[in-house]
Amino acid sequence: MAKGSLEGEVQFALAWLEEHSTGKDRANLARFGINAKKAFGVSMANIQVLGKRLGRNHELAAALWNTGWYEARMLTSFVDEPERVTAAQMDRWCRDFDNWGICDTLCFCLFDRTPHAWSKVSEWGLQSDEFVKRAGFALLASLAGHDKTAGDDQFLASFPLIESAATDERNFVKKGVSWALRRIGSRNAVLKAASMDMARRLADSADAAPRWVGKDALRDFTREKRGKA
Fold first, then answer.
1. Counting Cβ atoms within 10 Å, is residue 171 exposed (0-12), middle (13-18) or buried (19+)?
2. To the nearest whole number, what is the mean pLDDT of the chain?
C-alpha cells in the first residue's frame, strides 16, 4: 500500500474494516463475551490481512488506538513496532482494556515482544482492575509460549504471584491465572512438575477460586498426558 498521510491511512483502515464487517462477526463478539463499545464486526483473519497490508508503523498504531474502535485496536497488535513500544504506552493502553479479546491479543501478539514485558507481569498482576490484572497473567502466559531465552528461574519466581492471584474470584482473572500456570508447565519437564505441584495445592483449597484454578490446570495437564500415551 502506498504510504499517505497518517490521517489518510487511519481513514483507509477504518473504511476497510467497515467494508469487511459482517453480521456473523458482530454476533460472534457477543457470543464470545466481548462487550466492545465500538465494533464493526470483523474476523481476526481479516484484521491480520489488513495488518500485513499496512505494515509496521508505530505512529499509525497510536492513531488507530485513539479511534476507540475494537478492530482498529486489535489491528495495533500487528502494526505497532514492539521495540518502540514504551512502558508508559503499555500502561495507557492496558487501562483502556474492557474485554478479554483486546487484552489477550495485545499481550500475545505485541506486548510480550517489548523490552518491558517481564516488568509488567508483576506490576499488572498486583493491580485491582479486572482486565489490568488479567493482562499481567495473559502476558505471563504469552512469555511462557514465546520467550525462548527466559530461564526456568524467571517463571518459578512468578509462582507466588500466581498463587496470590488464584484467590481472585473474578472470571477473567482466574482464567488468566490458570492460563499462565498451564503455559509455564508446557515449557519443559522441570516447570511442568512445579506447575503440577502448585495446581494440586490449589485444587485442594477450601476456597472456590483457587480450587477452580487448580482443577482447571490439572485437567489440562492430565489431558496432555493422555494425548502422549
1. middle
2. 95
